Amino acid sequence: MKLYVSTFAPNPRRVTMFIAEKGIVGIEQVMIDLAANEHKSEAFVAKNPLARVPALELDDGRVLCETRAICTYLEGLHPEPNLMGDGFDERAFIEMADRRVEMHLFLGIANSVRHTHPGLAVLEQPQFPDFGASQGEKMREHARWLDGELAKHPFVAGERFTVADITAWCALEFARGLMKFKPGMEGMAHLQAWRDRMAERPSAGR
Predict the structure, then answer these.
(1) Burial environment of residue 147 by CB neighbours within 10 A (0 to 12, 13 to 18, 19 or more)
(2) Which residue of 10, 74, 76, 161 lies most exposed, with the fewest beta carbons within 10 A?
């Protein structure tokens, strides 16, 4: 299999971190240079018409896109360690946590960065700085929600590490790098403590 990724992009990082946590080997990584518009090349668009990374090219030639779908496929191939839930009940609550982080925290960060950071102007035209600034504020609202959740349990979805922690980690690291967002500096002590614990995991460097 081949995994198409891009340096610094948070969604490919979610997949590579998931792979690292699973201990999966043998998947070739193919780098796509977003700044050079390689994701819009004829060859890559033939694999993913939406011109987005990550994309997982299977051994039979099919191409699986969308981060969560790729992780679901890999979880099926490599069920241990379990990162998406054991049984329908746990799976549902882990998916709820993961979706909330993805749709509110992660998306707010992405919108803020894409519309305010000059380095991403090549990917987002036109940029709307006012929209980006408002998304930055909304992101902080959801970060405060997550801080409250982490006051009640050690991981995003409860008592153990799951795919929801991967999504949250990659979102926050994207914000740390391009928004200079540090939860502890904004009164979110539980979120900062969680972030610092996640940074110690070997997969966090992927």
Answers:
(1) buried
(2) 76
Single-letter code of the amino acid located at 20: A
pLDDT of residue 145: 97
Low-confidence ranges of the chain (pLDDT < 70): 121, 206
Q: How far is CA 65 from the centre of its chain?
A: 14
- Count other C-beta atoms under 10 Å from residue 36's C-beta: 10
- The whole-angstrom separation of Cα 171 and Cα 154 is 18
- For 73-138, give the DSSP string: HHHHH--SS--S-SSHHHHHHHHHHHHHIIIIIIHHHHHHHHHH-GGGTTTSSS--HHHHHHHHHH
Q: What is the C-alpha end-to-end distance of the chain, expressed in Å?
A: 18
